[in-house]
Specification:
The protein has 169 residues and is an alpha+beta fold. It folds into 2 domains: 1-114, Gcn5-related N-acetyltransferase (GNAT) (Aminopeptidase), CATH 3.40.630.30; 116-169, no CATH class. It is 29% helix and 28% strand. The protein is built from 5 helices and 9 strands. It has helices at 12-22, 29-36, 42-47, 97-111, 126-134, and strands spanning 2-6, 52-56, 65-73, 80-88, 116-121, 138-139, 144-146, 149-151, 163-168. It has a 7-stranded mixed beta sheet with strand order 1-2-3-4-5-9-6. A two-stranded antiparallel ribbon has the order 7-8. Helix 4 (97-111) links the parallel strand 4 (80-88) and strand 5. The longest helix has 15 residues, at 97-111. The two termini are 29 Å apart.
């Protein structure tokens, strides 16, 4: 059984461990460590109030955190919110955990007066692209098309292309 709750600063270490473990099946250990660098502690120090954790409520679970969403509200545009990073235990993927996290983030963002949510992903992450589309996100036109998907070249630096999404609330 799982519950969804607001993230806490104290969750940081376990979330980083989750990233390194959960992405270890598709990356080398060094790549999984590098991916966890996208989640410095500052995200939970300053945005725990807009970030979420799905946590096991039974004591028999080895890892308490079973999914998380790190998101925040734009300081420069009062209409926008942004989903920065989401992770779900591979054993629970396809069971609606990410959908629950996104739905709760949408609800809280709308309650806070936000009217749009943004997110990005890698053009090679076809699962993420499909998930965002299924959640009602629209791909923003980029400067080129890769495998039928509009991409923003060098979005996060040279060679770091991204697919950019937005969704109205």
């Amino acid at each position: 059984m799982t519950d969804i709750r607001q993230a806490r600063v104290g969750d940081h270490g376990e979330i980083v461990a989750c990233v390194q473990e959960w992405w270890g099946d598709s990356r080398t250990p060094a790549q999984a460590r590098d991916l966890s660098l996208l989640l410095p502690k500052l995200f939970l120090q300053f945005f725990s109030g807009t970030s979420l954790v799905v946590e096991a409520t039974d004591r028999g679970t080895i890892r308490a955190i079973q999914g998380f969403l790190v998101g925040f509200y734009s300081a420069d545009n009062e209409d926008e919110a942004y989903i920065h990073f989401v992770g779900v235990d591979p054993a629970l993927r396809g069971q609606g955990v990410a959908r629950r996290l996104y739905t709760e983030f949408f609800r809280q963002a709308a309650d806070a007066g936000r009217r749009e949510v943004r997110a990005i992903t890698s053009p090679t992450n076809t699962g993420s692209i499909a998930f965002h589309r299924a959640m009602g996100f629209v791909i923003e036109p980029g400067d080129r098309v890769v495998n039928g998907v509009s991409v923003h070249s060098d979005y996060d630096g040279p060679g770091q292309d991204r697919v950019s999404f937005h969704r109205k609330l």
